[in-house]
Write a structure and sequence with these properties.
By secondary structure, this protein is of the alpha/beta class. It folds into 2 domains: 165 residues, Rossmann fold (3-Layer(aba) Sandwich); 186 residues, Dehydroquinate synthase-like - alpha domain (Dehydroquinate synthase-like, alpha domain), CATH 1.20.1090. The protein contains 14 helices and 11 strands. The strands form 3 sheets. It has a 7-stranded mixed beta sheet, with helices on both faces. A two-stranded antiparallel sheet has the order 7-8. Strand 7 and strand 8 form a beta hairpin. The longest helix has 19 residues. Bound molecules: nicotinamide-adenine-dinucleotide (NAD). The site of nicotinamide-adenine-dinucleotide has 31 residues, from helix 2, helix 5, helix 6, strand 8 and helix 7.
């Protein structure tokens, strides 16, 4: 038995294994003599020990950042560049990102820009990063309160997925990652959607084929359109409104929503828009909304917050006819990209979603 699954995305390998030996051998065999490991305080505590033996024969430096979305900013990025520079890392060295989406997004950006691009390896440790953030070559940081405003496309040398890391991931984080898996299932087709929407999020931990199936959906969209000019935008389903909720939460809540929780809210808004604008069956939208509703963490914005949500959505204040483009759904497995949505239609959808939750 092979003990691993290998998937290629845009010519870059993704290896999924439940074997610690295969994980460690894959790191030992990397063709880099010097590696900087980037982790946050949690992945340093809970995940680093799994890979430590594989790094013994290499010259290795470890840089630990504070965990969470708050850290995904230019000052943390500068901190990473500072260490790479102070430790004399060169272009033919590598950065190994051991963490969730925050570490992978920022580590990818740091590596892709340091010395005009050094190699990086993603070792995602959260469910969300395994099925989404570490796949597809998008790297970035938040800027001026807006999500992923600064970033680059750059693909890792390899992505190593070891679902055993999930043992220490808090339940709420599993739920957050599960939301992205559900979104992938909606974009894929009835079979995956029916199976995933019928299970509890915890079950994913014991059935890693779901992880592989979900990430393959992402890979299929990325490979058709690696640089996001067309059909890859379908992956934004739930995210245009979801990012608005995430930004709102970072501005207004002392304990911000998790990414997947904001996306679950965004899915409610965008399933509603899909009924109105792209002909999604209303009964199906209700059913799917109930699936996403289970993964929303209260409190959510109130009707009084709609003005701020609309501002965060980025409507042009001077141009009343301005539209924002959304990726919506016509039916399961049939996304529609670049659907124009007016300020009024979006306000309405925010309102319906908020009312449905109160
Ligand atoms: N690049 C992309 O294509 C893409 C796609 C989706 C999401 N994202 C980004 O990903 C980010 C969200 O990722 P996330 O949900 O992984 O958040 P995260 O990186 O903040 O990780 C979530 C929390 O779990 C902890 N953690 C991670 N793995 C752990 C483990 N195995 N054991 C114990 N604790 C662990 C982290 O320290 C953190 O506190 C957002 O910034 C989002 O914008 C990027």
């Amino acid at each position: 038995m092979k003990g691993y699954t290998e998937i290629k995305s845009f010519e870059h390998p993704i290896l999924l294994t439940g074997s610690r030996k295969i994980l460690q051998d894959s790191i030992t065999n990397l063709p880099f003599d010097r590696i900087m490991v980037l982790c946050d305080r949690n992945t340093w505590r809970d995940c680093f020990h799994y890979i430590a033996p594989a790094l013994c024969k290499k010259s290795c430096h470890i840089h630990i950042i504070k965990e969470g979305e708050d850290s995904k900013n230019l000052s943390t990025l500068e901190g990473i560049w500072n260490i790479l520079s102070a430790e004399g890392f060169r272009r033919d060295d590598a950065l190994l990102n051991l963490g969730g989406g925050v570490v992978c997004d920022m580590g990818g950006l740091a590596a892709a820009t340091f010395h005009r691009g050094m190699q990086f390896i993603h070792v995602p440790t959260s469910l969300l990063a395994m099925v989404d953030a570490a796949i597809g070559g998008k790297n970035g940081v938040n800027f001026r309160g807006l999500k992923n405003q600064i970033g680059v496309f750059a693909f890792p040398y390899i992505t190593l997925i070891y679902p055993v890391f999930l043992k220490t991931l808090p339940n709420r984080q599993i739920q957050s990652g599960f939301v992205e898996m559900l979104k992938h299932a909606l974009l894929n087709g009835d079979d995956l959607w029916n199976r995933l929407s019928a299970i509890e999020h915890e079950e994913v931990m014991h059935h890693s084929h779901y992880i592989s199936e979900a990430l393959k959906v992402k890979v299929s969209y990325v490979d058709k359109d690696p640089f996001d000019h067309g059909i890859r935008q379908a992956l934004n389903l739930g995210h245009t409104a979801g990012h608005v909720f995430e930004e709102w939460s970072l501005l207004n809540q002392s304990e911000p929503m998790l990414h997947g929780e904001a996306i679950a809210l965004g899915m409610l808004v965008e399933l509603g828009l899909s009924v109105k604008l792209t002909g999604l069956d209303e009964n199906f939208a209700l059913l799917a909304s109930n699936v996403f509703r289970k993964h929303i963490h209260l409190p959510v914005p109130t009707l009084q917050d709609i003005g701020q949500l609309i501002d965060l959505a980025g409507f042009d204040k001077k141009n009343k006819d301005h539209f924002i483009r959304f990726s919506l759904l016509q039916k399961v497995g049939k996304p529609v990209v670049q659907v124009a949505v007016s300020r009024e239609t979006l306000s309405h959808a925010f309102r319906n979603t908020i009312l449905s939750l109160t």
